């Protein structure tokens, strides 16, 4: 996972705000985090009714994936079977993509279920839903298939799907739920099914686990942190590195939130965050938009931090801490970046990419 | 004739924990005070302001010892800045020899051990880093 990965995802997610991708495994405990994140975007709050509907769909969709995803046995870990869950908000629609592992023997049945739901109109779907409720059918996955019907009913759109055979035992089941924000929107969103598959391939190839692009406020940071923390728990890496990584994640996320420049009328603090594994280390890449004047300041500051060794950073932290209290500086006066540099196992790396006429996308990489 | 030191009236301060902020339990009568949990508020000033004000009042009292136990799962850099300010207030007090800070941390938590050692080296108040 390098700067060009950030650029690839950043460019591909152009026009999406927020845009979120998570590569499996799918855990029930992530449901509240996903819900919180979807509600943290100011755009969603404006469209209150829409926001509630989307939250409902997200939960249904995520739990449906949890129910149906098979877990790859240890001896087959070489195939890309973790799956992916993603959502993004575009101008005209909210799109939820999921990819999950299924047995080849189940593909026909699953495809049939989706096709059956897709063939029904609103009235048929309602009747089908009520019949299912009355008959109280529970399948071997602990569900009644109600989730799928609800997704079709609430979205009012066909459920897009595709399957991709991985080997003689497993396939990946791709699914897309589209919720149009207004009835006049006639944009085709079917290409996003393919795009989600492309993202998944790239995430797998680069061992990337999390991508978020959107508004950075405390409400969107907390669920990201919760998911990142879980991903950071790596038995082989040990508790010490996990704690260090969690600390860096907090600082990096809050740094974006503090310094991200409002780029639109909503005053959102726009940024991008991604996390992955690289040669046995953890790699965190983060970016936000900065004006030209800040570019020069940041370059100087980062080059200085990079030039310091362990003891130099320690001394700088001590003197900065003292100065912040002595001069009653209410902010943390740059302590965050120093702490990130201290926790990083390699030198910090950074890049600036032109963004519009007088702004830059500032990207920072931390290896732990 | 000098007037006797004025008794500084102070009530105990309790702030319950949230997912972003620690539990604060500051005891006015000299019992065990504690700040414990995670501390990563976006606006650390807002959260720590009542704690800083309480500590300023407490530091004026002549007759009350303080045992302050600090235990963090982790804290962000802005919280670190306010922790330092709190300890700095205690250091400036004329009664600092009756204060005792205990920094509790897990033996695997290298980061919190380092943070405790750093604060200890910056502050001239009885300070123990207790690794368990």
Structural features:
heterodimer, A: alpha+beta, Heat Shock Protein 90, 10-stranded antiparallel beta sheet, 13 helices, elongated, B: 132 residues, 6-stranded mixed beta sheet, 3 helices, 33% helix
Describe the structure.
- The complex is a heterodimer of chains A (368) and B (132).
- Chain A has helices spanning 3-12, 31-39, 42-46, 48-68, 104-118, 122-135, 146-155, 191-205, 218-232, 238-259, 292-307, 310-326, 335-343, and strands at residues 19-23, 84-89, 93-103, 160-165, 170-180, 208-215, 270-278, 281-291, 349-355, 359-367.
- Chain A has 368 residues and is α+β, with helices and mostly antiparallel strands.
- Chain A folds into two domains: 17-215, Heat Shock Protein 90 (2-Layer Sandwich); 216-368, 2-Layer Sandwich (Heat Shock Protein 90).
- The two termini of chain A are 13 Å apart.
- The model of chain A has no long low-confidence stretch (mean pLDDT 84).
- By secondary structure, chain B is an alpha/beta fold.
- Chain B has one domain (13-131): STAS domain (Transcription Regulator spoIIAA, 2-Layer Sandwich).
- In chain B, helix 1 runs parallel beside helix 2.
- The radius of gyration of chain B is 15 Å and the shape is globular.
- Classes of the chains: A alpha+beta (368), B alpha/beta (132).
What's the gist of this structure?
The complex is a heterodimer of chains A (368) and B (132). Chain A has 368 residues and is an alpha+beta fold. In chain A, 48% of the residues lie in helices and 23% in strands.
Q: Which structural class should the secondary elements of chain B be placed in?
A: alpha/beta
Q: What's the name of the CATH homologous superfamily of chain B?
A: STAS domain
Distance between the termini of chain A: 13 Å
Report the C-alpha radius of gyration of chain A, rounded.
22 Å
Quick one: CATH class of chain B?
A: Alpha Beta
Q: What is the terminal-to-terminal distance of chain B?
A: 51 Å
- Biggest sheet, spatial arrangement of strands of chain A: 4-5-3-2-1-6-7-8-10-9
Instruction: Please name the CATH topology of chain B.
Output: Transcription Regulator spoIIAA
Number of strands of chain B: 6
Helix content of chain B: 25-40%
Give the CATH architecture of the largest domain in chain A: 2-Layer Sandwich
Number of strands of chain A: 10
Q: What's the domain count of chain A? A: 2
Total helices of chain B: the number is 3
CATH architecture grouping of chain B = 2-Layer Sandwich
Give the strand content of chain A. 15-25%
Largest sheet of chain A: 10 strands, antiparallel
Number of domains of chain B: 1
